[in-house]
Amino acid sequence: MAIPRRYFFRLVVLAILLVFTAFFFVPIVWLFLAPTKTDGQLLTHSPFAFGSFGTVAHTFHKIVTYNGHSLLIWLKNSAIYSFGGTALAILAAIPAGYGLALTQFIGRRALLAITLVVMIMPATALVLPLFLEMDKIGLYGTIWALILPFGFFPFGVYLAYIYFSSTIPKDLLAAARIDGAGEWRVFRYIALPLARPIVALVGFFALVASWNNFFLPFVMTYDNSKYPLQIGLQQLIGSTASFNPANYSAGSSVVVLHRPDLAMAVIIAIAPVLIVFLFAQRALVSGMLAGATKE
Amino acid sequence: MTLPSATAAPGERARARRGSRGERTRERPPAGTSRTAGYFFVALYVGLLLLLGIVPVVYAIYLALSPPAANGGPDFISTFSDYRFVPAFEHVVEFMAFWLVSQTVLVVALVLMLHNLTSRVGAVYRFLFYIPGALAGAASVIVWLFMLDPSASPFAFVLHWFGYAQFNNTIAPANLPVIFAIMAFWTGAGGWIVVMYGALNNIPHELLESAQMDGANAFHTALRIKLPLIRKWVVYMLVLSFAGGTQLFVEPAVLGTASLGVGISKFWSPNQLAWFVASQYSYYNQAAAISVDLLVFGLVVAAVLVWRGRLFEVE
Amino acid sequence: MKSSISRKFRALPLGACVAIVAVVAAGAATGSAAGASAASAKASSTPLVVWYDAARAAYVKVYKATHPHANVKWVLYSGDNNGDGTLQSKFSLYNRVGWKAGVSPDVVFDEENYEAGWLGLPPFNDLLDLTPYISKSVLNNIEGMSLCTINGKVLCTRNDNAANVLWVNTDLFAKFFPGQQPPTTWDQYAADGQSLIKNHPGYYIGEFGQPWDAETYLWGNECPINQAIGLQKLLSNPASPNCTKIASLIDSALGAFTHDGPFTTAWVSNKTAQHMVMDVGAIWQGTAIYPSGSGSNGPGTNVMAAYPTPAATNGAHVTGAIGGGLWMVTSHTTQPKAAAALVAYMTTSPKIQSDPTVTQGLPAYKPDQDKWLSSLNGVFANPTETIATIKQAASQIWGGWSAVPWSVESIFGNTVTPGLVAGGTFTSALATLGGNIKSAAQSAGWQVVSNK
Question: Which residues of C fall within a CB distance of 8 Å from A237?
Fold first, then answer.
């Protein structure tokens, strides 16, 4: 007897979903299992084999202490650039979004249009002119050369604009203004208390974007000790034997990295963002659509 | 109502079509609203916008169009005939074609499928799809170095089925646009699925129930009712992805280094080419020219998408 | 009373006086020398910035141990491996924003062997001519300097000598070619390959389809495809018989070459090293590729012996080279003497170059070679011949392969290797390689000719 059409359809959907689950999630599983194995085991055993906890501890220690705890230095740098940039992004975007949504001034529409255009602009294509400009104004080589660009976040402004224009009832604002409240008080006592979801949302996007940014720090950092994690990871590839044959001419007393060490470095590099992701998913959805639910 | 809503009634949308940017008139704020306070709210942002948005663009255009010094490289017109220029743009266009089409189709298909499941089960799937978004750039390339290697990958059977005996076969030049599209899809799709799922949740239940009572099955409901209502989000995704895609840099750069440059040069993408001529020859004018080309390319296509998609309705 | 004392003094033997004077003088000399070095150590309060790669970490250790008072800031970087462009990017940035003593590098170790031709020529001009700082006798004793001597200036030193030899698995060779000697001409080499294809498929005479194929096969045949013959003038003639003959010979035995690259996962999991009957490779590859053990899955170095690479198709006894590294001093250094001294130390000190636990390659500096070579006793088969072969090959690197502002290895890998991996021929690859070298040269502002 043929399977009823409804169940067949459900089976097909399930099969497709499982295939994609494997596609998305298997590499992550592989990544977390990799440091449990030695380099030889990684190549000869099954990709899903679990090595040993002892190997994990050894690999962790090796990669963290490598080259004078470089990984920790890079972690610190990433934190400074990203959190600094995110703080600035929030500081600029939230009031700007509010101003665009709920105040009136000449050039408001133009500014909004410019923001939309700038959002679409390829940021990486501007890194080179940005570098030349930073050099001219003397900020090159300072942390501001990174924090300022990270703090410029038109996407965050647009999100805040949407949020404020749809969550704050106009009559409430009108009433407050008629009562004589100044604009600052309106913002401080009406808008800000309602702004928690959008602050979280803008913060999330800004943090992830700045943490994962490669090209800007690549151009803007002068000194190797100022690299963030993304650049550091690329440098580690050069120290990994299997990706750089020159390491095979190292003397036998040299510490050379192998594949599991690189995998461990990746895990450490993504850990902060991963943790943020784990907690942000719900806030992401609710913040994103808080505007849409209010008609 | 400014959010591209899933439930804008047809009449509203028709009214929205008026005006060059679809602007609708709206009631003025009540008298007494200070007109200067707005400037203070946007001040910090405008400062950053000028410093980091406007000035670099103007500087880039100026550099691109001004004649270079002696031994300063080709002028603006000649940059187009650089032997690396056309291949680089071809690579990126191929990459974006694969990526945008597959991302759009698959994200929409997956989210519609997920929306049919119970919210608990759907949440688990969405979470698993979304985790790769935490890896970006160098981190995701390192993972994919192993995924693409038939000797080490958990997907080895897939690679063998394609006939790839070793890593250099997988990353043959013809495959590169597809490979980068796969990487980009892997990191980006999950986030968009979450967003679209939220948009689907906004569809009033009455609409779906009445469709069901009319005899539509899940498939028809998905295609005829849900899909049109998230159209704006799809266009939004296309626009933002397009902007990001033109700037492809990290993935080819890191893959090139780790693969010993087999089949991937240091100037595979236009962004890489710009950086290459700047850093290897100090041809800053040529680099700026390429950056401006990318800018214009991205803006034109995005503008077309925005206009045709009637996406950004400004109040 | 006075007279008795003075008589005692007069009695001091002359020898003792001389001795006293000598001791005092020596003490004064030592004191001033110590004073001088202490003064110089104290005077250089700006550290000397040295960029090194992961494989040179042992060098750093030795230097720190032997120079405890030196003020050096050691910075690990990617080594510019596979021409990843780090050095060029950083140097052009520094050229733009200014070099800072104590921050930007004074000394750099570079894995990209063509780089002196890039960083030392316009528009960079960032390398210091070492001729005034390192004695001629030292410089003349370093092998492989054709990649460092550019327009009469010495812009770097070589770290190790990576001349190519023919590595032979003596067990396999005796099994498959009983009674024969390893090939001395490329014709014989190709014939051996054809014999393997017919009688022992799955065994190889070499690797092919790697980014360094040009350095392996073309350099050692005097192929004039990348020869600088003047200021910004390149001789590039892929149609020369020195190039075409070797290409067609290799094409006649393509099936006897493996596409697995050393150090790749395929090489290890396919145990490719155990299937190499012979292989043209650099000196350092002997101990890097062939050890048994899960990291390389080789046959063990005890069965490997080194023979001279076949004579070039035009009869010349030359060989190519793969690797070797460069030590460079930047022209913006504020301490040229100290920087050059450090470079000289790294290049010549036996504590570094002759110690196989510190460096795995044959020293480029000739006086250090014998000691390093003696450590090979008991490592390879036919030890005396192997060592003699290595020493001879080291002196036979052809000087017509030039350091230029592009990397032949990169170009080959980018444009030629994919075709070869897909089964293409070396002959067809030659034209592609020549064309791409020409494009790269012209976009760098060079003039390309095909005849001298």
Answer: 78
Domain count, chain B: 1
For residue A289, count CB atoms less than 10 angstroms from its CB and return exposed for 0-12, middle for 13-18, buried for 19 or more: buried
Tell me if B43 is assigned to some domain: no
- Which among B30, B59, B294 has the least Cβ separation from residue A122? B294
Three-state DSSP class for A197?
Answer: helix
Nearest to A140 among C79, C97, C263 (CB): C97
The distance of C323 to chain B (nearest Cα, Å) reads 14
Query: Which residue from C75, C82, C360 is facing A251, i.e. has the nearest CB?
Result: C360
Which residues in chain A have their CB less than 8 angstroms from residue C57's CB?
A: 250, 254-255
Measured in angstroms, the CA of A43 and the nearest CA of chain B are apart by: 6
Assess if residue A142 is contained within a domain: yes
Tell me, yes or no, whether A7 lies in a domain: no
pLDDT per residue as tens digits for the range A13-23: 889 999 999 99
Alpha helices in chain B (DSSP H): 10-16, 37-49, 55-65, 76-79, 85-115, 119-130, 138-147, 156-161, 167-170, 176-201, 205-213, 218-220, 227-229, 231-245, 250-258, 270-281, 284-309
The residue written with tokens 């959805």 in the block is: A285
Using 50 as the pLDDT threshold, list the residues of chain B that sit under it.
1-27, 30-32, 314-315
Which residues in chain C are contacts of B69 at CB distance < 8 A? none
> Is B290 contained in some domain?
yes
Whether the CB of C445 is below 8 Å from some CB of chain B: the reply is yes
pLDDT, tens only, A251-286 = 666 777 888 999 999 999 999 888 887 777 666 665
Q: Provide the whole-model pTM.
A: 0.82
Domains and CATH numbers, chain C: 45-158+325-360 (3.40.190.10), 164-322+379-449 (3.40.190.10)
* Residues sharing a CB contact under 8 Å with residue C367, sequence separation 6 or more, in sequence order: C141, C348
